[in-house]
Specification:
Length: about 190
């Protein structure tokens, strides 16, 4: 099953919240979510990398942390949409790289950032989701802080992340699942060098 098909299957099986169908329609027809890369070069820098990453985060989150009483819908929303901010964010192109074997310069595929709506990372994902459907507080907090210490606010000394992780364990779980997907499951998944 391809990335888009698996995403749609999980979404349709678990997400029934009002507005979810409109959000899915927007994802499918107004964004490059299913074809976009997950990064410029680090992980999933390939066509479909963002969808692949979202699915990997879903599986890491669900397989590691889901217990009886947890909400399937919450896990699906948080994992599948945590990086929604990356839709319509990367621009494909090429750059010149010297071939070490031949000494010749070659054009290779690359991605660059073209942020048309510079609103942050996790907070941008929350904003975009809530244009279509309401998030529960724990979902919004988890998505907002999924970057952990890599978030610009945390690197700048903001203590809200510590309070968020203390009050909302889902935020910690989503961050751990994101790390597992990025650094373990997606190691060497970039098509660019």
């Amino acid at each position: 099953m391809g990335g888009r098909e698996e995403f749609l299957q999980i979404w349709q099986q678990h997400v029934t919240r009002p507005g979810s169908e409109k959000l899915l329609d927007w994802l499918d027809h107004k964004t490059d979510f299913f074809t976009a890369p997950a990064s410029t070069r680090f992980h999933g820098a390939c066509e479909g990398g963002l969808c692949m990453h979202s699915l990997n985060v879903y599986h890491a989150l669900h397989d590691t942390f889901f217990t009886e009483g947890d909400s399937e819908e919450t896990f699906a929303i948080c994992a599948l949409l945590h990086d929604l901010c990356k839709a319509n964010y990367y621009k494909p192109g090429t750059r010149n790289v010297k071939n070490e074997a031949t000494g010749q310069w070659e054009k290779v595929p690359s991605y660059s950032v073209e942020d048309l709506f510079p609103y942050g990372h996790g907070e941008k994902s929350v904003f975009l989701i809530e244009r279509f459907m309401k998030l529960r507080v724990e979902e919004a907090v988890a998505i907002r802080w999924h970057m952990g210490g890599f978030d610009d606010a945390a690197r700048g000394g903001c203590f809200a992340i510590s309070e968020a992780y203390d009050k909302y364990p889902l935020a910690v779980k989503l961050h751990i699942a994101d790390l597992e997907a990025t650094y373990l499951m997606e190691h060497r998944t970039s098509a660019v060098r």
